[in-house]
Design goal:
By secondary structure, the protein is an alpha/beta fold. Helices cover about 35% and strands about 15% of the residues. It has 2 domains: about 140 residues, 3-Layer(aba) Sandwich (Rossmann fold); about 130 residues, Rossmann fold (3-Layer(aba) Sandwich), CATH 3.40.50. The protein contains 13 helices and 12 strands. The strands form 3 sheets. A 5-stranded parallel sheet has the order 5-4-3-6-7, sandwiched between helices. Strands 8, 9, 10, 11 and 12 form a 5-stranded mixed sheet that branches. The chain has a two-stranded antiparallel ribbon with strand order 1-2.
Length: about 350
């Protein structure tokens, strides 16, 4: 049977949504639900990891204010959202099951799923039978709110459920860190989380210095993604409260999108003509092409787009494909690198 789960964008941005997106120190992958271990390894960073995994009972409060209790740190974790999947991998814990393996592999390249990881269906409709077959000791889900029926339905499997929120526009970077820390607590990997977050801080500091030393024509910028529907291009600018806007600000840049945004992800909606209002701002945009239709190709053929100052002056930069704009610390590092490369390469 299938369990309806709201996709992140559709859940919190109804009008603005894009209708689309274990123990410490080991790189061995847990056995699959069928009992056959995968031969794939986790990242090189995990191969070199020497941080400790906590033991003993775990008690945490999830993002819905629920108390989640475990007899010991979770080892067999099923994850139903990509950011949380990435976080788990960054903690050197291989999930026993995830939602939409192909989608994760396309949109989030910050971490690599072990080959053979069980796929439990889409993020919108994961399959309860597949989840049960993976035999998890914890399920991590992204919930839309306190009344989201998903949590109760998942709990019917008799497995503890950690309900998380993907974003908080009041403090996007802080929330990303807190979510990472919460997953680390449930898996006993807090020491590893501290290492990863320290690396992120160092990455930010070094990148900030590089950009400060660059002779930029403007620090104003807009990051956006988009999609094609009915032959029309819709753009989604990242405004105040968006994670990529916050990263840009940390690097010394100034977000230029002042249009309406949603209160959770800080995302707006406009057409190509709407970008005229940001003046001389530099553009950054998602370089991952949606198989449903390439908005990037549509931009290239649009006269308004090609006449915008940033485009005419070569200041419109596509990020490399596979950087997940709603990811964790490792995706954030990829984004930092993309900003620096775009702004400092001659």
């Amino acid at each position: 049977m299938s369990l309806p789960v709201r996709r992140r964008a559709a859940a919190v941005l109804t009008a603005l949504a894009l209708g689309v997106l274990s123990a410490c120190g080991t790189t061995e992958v847990p056995e699959s639900a069928e009992g056959a271990p995968s031969a794939a390894a986790l990242s090189d960073s995990c191969a070199a990891d020497t941080t400790a995994t906590a033991t003993g009972p775990v008690t945490v409060t999830d993002h819905l204010g629920r108390t989640v209790e475990l007899d010991q740190p979770a080892e067999r974790v099923a994850v139903l959202e990509w950011q949380q999947t990435e976080d788990l991998l960054s903690l050197c814990v291989a999930p026993v099951a995830v939602a939409d393996v192909d989608g994760f592999t396309t949109w989030d390249t910050a971490e690599t799923l072990p080959e053979g990881t069980a796929d439990v269906g889409t993020r919108q409709e994961p399959t309860l039978d597949a989840l049960a077959a993976a035999d998890p000791d914890l399920i991590i889900v992204e919930a839309s709110g306190a009344d989201d029926p998903v949590v109760e339905q998942l709990e019917s499997l008799g497995v503890p459920v950690l309900a998380t929120r993907g974003a908080d526009a009041s403090d996007p970077l802080g929330h990303m860190r807190d979510l990472f820390g919460l997953i680390a607590e449930t898996t006993g990997r807090t020491e590893r989380a501290e290492v990863v977050l320290a690396e992120l801080d160092q990455h930010l500091a070094e990148a900030r210095d590089e950009i400060a030393a660059a002779d930029l024509p403007t620090t104003d910028f807009v990051y956006f993604d988009g999609w094609v529907e009915g032959g029309n291009v819709t753009l989604r600018p990242f405004g105040e409260g968006a994670l990529y806007s916050a990263i840009g600000e940390e690097l010394g840049l100034t977000p230029a999108w002042t249009g309406e945004v949603d209160p959770v992800y800080g995302l707006g909606q406009t057409d190509i003509e709407g970008l005229i209002g940001v003046g001389e701002a530099t553009f950054f945009y998602t370089g991952t092409d949606d198989p449903a239709g390439s908005y990037l190709e549509e931009l290239e053929d649009n006269a308004i787009w090609t006449s915008l100052p940033a485009v005419e002056e070569g200041r419109a930069h596509a990020f490399p494909a596979g950087i997940w704009t709603f990811g964790g610390p490792r995706s954030a590092q990829q984004a930092i690198d993309a900003y620096v490369t775009a702004l400092t390469d001659a």
